[in-house]
Amino acid sequence: MLRLDGTAASKAVKEQLKQQTLRLEQDGNRAPHLAAVLVGSNGASETYVAGKVKSCGEIGYDSTLVRFDETISEQELLDKIAELNNDDTIDGILVQLPLPKHISEAKVISAVSPLKDVDGFHPISVGRMVQGLETFIPATPYGIMLMLEHYQLETKGKHAVVIGRSNIVGRPMSILLSSNTTYGNCTVTICHSHTHNLKDLCLQGDIIIAALGRAEFVKADMVKPGAIVIDVGITRVMDETAAKGYRIKGDVDYADVSTVAGAISPVPGGVGPMTIAGLMKNTMEAYLRRK
Fold first, then answer.
1. Please, are residues 213 and 184 in contact by the beta-carbon 8 Å criterion?
2. Domain spanning 28-117: CATH 3.40.50.1970
3. Which of 5, 91, 117, 119 is flagged as catalytic?
4. 35 Cβ neighbours under 8 A, 6+ residues apart
5. Using CA atoms, how far apart are residues 42 and 32, in angstroms rounded to an integer?
6. Residues forming CATH 3.40.50.720 domain(s) in the chain
7. Would you call 52 a catalytic residue per the annotation?
8. Vertex 265 angle, CA 180 and 55, to 5°
9. 228-231 and 263-264 strand pairing
10. What's the pLDDT band for 42 if we cut at 50, 70, 90?
């Protein structure tokens, strides 16, 4: 059984980007610059943004963290995004989700310039991805594709089962895996809360992408022997014996499924680091396109 170590794979991606950044600076160019916008003090969001800023520093990117209290008005946030759009020293913009309920996430996502949309959420970015055109791919699906590439996992002609249909992971994964690319060319089935015979469908999967947000939902009896299992889930499960009072669980019962899977990603240390690697790759791409 192959353990799909996202920490190691992301380190390799970031090392490539670090060398690319050094070459840019040696040629007299500035480094790529990522701006992250954080609204409120959600614990998980704080952790995610801190990881992104840290990765920028490791690679050699410039980064700007823009923080707002959760009481900020929607218009104030939109005005700040417009300012970042017009700042020629900033190449990529990400707005950490979720946002407070009084702010429309759809409006905020659409307000980010498609030229700086390193999260890949803008409707233009999504439309171009569907059409197979050059664009920014959402960071988590991009990270998963980079993981498949790093471990050189064959996907051509395989049956991929994607559990979850979110705009952030499930739907873009179905498009990328079915695309005519080196790590695509799959036949894809998307499963969700209204899918009948989910277990039977999963057992047909040569590749399973679990992105439904239910801790340890996927068990060994749902997995075809030798299948590639990629766990996108991240749920805090209360545990008084843990130092923080909780443990992080994925959507896959790792201990159980690893007995049958041919390859499996852990949680933590799997897709999470690859999401940041995808974001860093998008930031470099945004920089190069703007140049």
1. no
2. no
3. 119
4. 63, 64, 65, 66, 84, 87, 90, 92, 93, 94
5. 27
6. 139-272
7. yes
8. 85
9. parallel
10. confident
Alpha carbons 271 and 279: distance in angstroms, whole number: 12
Q: Which of 5, 80, 91, 96 is catalytic?
A: 96
CATH 3.40.50.10860 location in the chain: 28-117
Peptide bond into 114 cis (omega under 30): no
In this prediction, residues 19-40 reach a mean pLDDT of 98
Q: Is 5 a catalytic residue?
A: no
Tell me: the pLDDT tens digits for 89-104?
999 999 999 999 999 9
Taking the whole predicted model, whether its pTM rises above 0.90 is answered as: yes
- pLDDT averaged over every residue in the chain: 96
Parallel, antiparallel or unpaired: strands 62-68 and 33-39: parallel
Report the interhelical angle of 6-26 vs 139-150 (nearest 10°): 100
Alpha-carbon span 285 to 115, nearest angstrom: 10
Domain at 139-272: CATH architecture: 3-Layer(aba) Sandwich (3.40)
Burial class for 231, CB neighbours closer than 10 Å (0-12, 13-18, 19+): buried
Active site residue 119: yes
User: pLDDT tens-digit profile of 131-178?
Assistant: 999 999 999 999 999 999 999 999 999 999 999 999 999 999 999 999
- For residue 87 the two structure tokens come to 């700042």
Tokens standing for residue 146:
């980079």
Q: Kindly name the residue from 14, 52, 249, 281 that is annotated as catalytic.
A: 52
